Amino acid sequence: MTKFFPEMTLFDEHGKRLYLSESERSRFLEASKSENRENRVFCAVLHFTGCRISEALELTDRQISIQDQAIIFRTLKKRKHDKQGRERENLNFARCRCLQK
């Protein structure tokens, strides 16, 4: 079951959208096809995992498992409480199953 976090919003306090739309994500991935292999892989990781740029830049080969089809990210944004003051679970790593064979 997916958890829903009501404190997550699509817009910041100034009304500016925080995330890309579906068509923007598609254009981003399409534009990455003209890049070299390293940049294409970087863009694909961002696109398919939704990780932060800093989290993708920190990845090492030990965090990528082709066999398990998983990428393990060290989460860099670790808030102890959400915007409503509730305590969050203390997770240091997030696993993303997104690799395709």
Describe this structure as you would to a colleague:
This protein is α+β, with helices and mostly antiparallel strands and 101 residues long. The protein has one domain (22-96). It has helices at 22-32, 37-49, 53-57; strands at 64-65, 70-74, 93-96. It has a three-stranded antiparallel beta sheet, with no helix packed on it. Helix 1 runs antiparallel to helix 2. The two termini are 26 Å apart.
Question: In a nutshell, what does this entry contain?
Answer:
The protein has helices at residues 22-32, 37-49, 53-57; strands spanning 64-65, 70-74, 93-96. Strands 1-2-3 form a 3-stranded antiparallel beta sheet, with no helix packed on it. The protein has one domain (22-96).
Structural descriptors:
101 residues, alpha+beta, three-stranded antiparallel sheet, 29% helix, 11% strand, flat
